[in-house]
Amino acid sequence: MSKATVKERARYWFDNTMARGTAALIGWLALVSLGLIVVVSALTMWLTPDEALRHQGWPGVLWLSLMHALSPGKIAGDAGTAPFLAIMLGASLGGIFIVSILVGVLSAGLRGKLEELRKGRSRVIESGHTVILGWSEQLFTIVSELAKAHASQHGSVIAIMAERDKPAMEDAIRARVGDTGKTRLVCRTGRPTEPADLDLLSLSSARTIVVLSPEQDDPDAHVIKTLLALGKRAGDHPPVVAAIASSRNMAAARLAGGPGVHLVDSDDIAARLIVQSSRQSGMSVVCMDLLNFDGDEIYLRRDPSLAGRSYGEALDAYATATVLGLRAPGGVVLNPPPDTVIGTSDEIVVLAQDDSLIRRESGTAPADERHIVPATAPPPAPERTLMLGWNGRAARIIHYLDGYVTPGSVLDVAGDHPGAGAGLADLRNLTVNVKECDGTDRYALESLGVGVYQHVIVLSDDRCDPRHADTRTLMTLLQLRDMQATLGEKYSIVSEMHDENNRALAEVTEADDIVISDTVIGLLLAQLAENPHLAEVFGHLFDSTGSEVYPRAVEDYVTTGVPVAFRTIMESALRRGETAIGYRLAAKSGKPPHYGIVLNPDRSRPVTLTPGDCVIVLAER
């Protein structure tokens, strides 16, 4: 290779200086301007000495040249000899080029700085803030719920980082969430898997970190990589809450996150809700009411005055709170046996509107024995269930359903999904049949003889875009409801949907329950972000072992059609080994935001319940 020439070296050096940005360009313009001024001044002193003397010599000529270079319009006021005017004209022409280039350079530099600010690359200088990493439909629910939780707090901040344009994120949140009150949002563009980008969020001083499953292929790999990046960073490590889309990735996520991470198994929770809702209408609505910040919330409370008393006696301890269970050194137990003795180190799990409003009951009226219905357990009978559609969690749903039904029960899967019926080994109680069917076609649905089933589950098709899948689900629900009205058939209908905004449309179909999995997961993440210490409580709440939340027919507990105090309902449930935490009014089941759900009611105020209403209890299967 030939040796570089002087010209090439000079050009290489010049290119490197130009690549340094706006400051280097301005520096070069300053040198060119200085050269122009010196040349013009020298020519003036040499060719027009009389004019130079008239302008006070070198200092005056330099100033005059500078003014002509910076303000070309100065030439209009010049007077003198022809050579002098020609020199000043040259200075003005050179100034025009220099000033034009300067304006362009400054404009480009300012535009670049504004673009950098627009991308959100500055560091977040906050403390005690909540950090959300990633972008999904759950983000809007989380932001909305945290804004409600912080409604009375000044200076609350939520910092969001995702691989999206900063203004686009702000516009999307503003459109979906609306006013966030006293909570301020700070959006940053970056990759949550990159430690350098994470440093922008001041994570060491954050209150909680929420990691979302992004809307892309293999979302769990992204979450796990983010957990690894969080674990490797220096400084304090605040609590981390993460959503995992597939249960098979939970072990890897636990290893990546370590003991300080609370993982939410989105697939598992959605499957459990669908199964429970298919058997107990309104289950998903009850869970959403338990998880949101609109009304009552779950708290852990240490009360030494209850030590030595039984759990059954503690149910009457509070006037404004409902006892749900105990947190002992060995862990959380919801709805323990009534004779369980409360230890001195135990905490009470309570449902209350606010922690500051929990107060002891001064005295409670006894239950009205006249209205308590004796507990009767009808003999279990085989059931027939129809599942319309198929998706990635259908096999898990069927396995959970197999644990609830009695032997001899039948599940028919009807759909056109190529994977329908796969992964169904080791079923003990269910016999599964697979049929080819288009769930949106009226004649295909009628050919199934839907009237012979007690329960119908409509699943979202994961082969379609979520919006299109919800549209197909709505069509199926409308067909089923019209068939019920036309043929006089009776069966419960539970559907799975993606978008909470479609709930209002789905209410037209009068479906018994609609499981919006993204909304439920978002509510759970918001609760854990605000109260990480409740992770164990919510883990038990959604666990199939132990007690679960059930809406059950009120006529099985108390007399209907007459005023009954909730204290009487609690006593009736307690005699069955259950904990009553509220009720649902069927007449208001279609009215948002609570859909007829009343949790933690005043136990002394009478309420008239009618057939069709439900008592919400914590109970074993």
From TrEMBL:
It is a multi-pass membrane protein. GO terms for cellular component: endomembrane system. Keywords: Ion channel, Ion transport, Lipoprotein, Membrane, Transmembrane, Transmembrane helix, Transport. Residues 268-361 form the CASTOR/POLLUX/SYM8 ion channel conserved domain. This is Lipoprotein. Its main location: membrane. The chain crosses the membrane at residues 21-47, 84-110. It is found in: Endomembrane system.
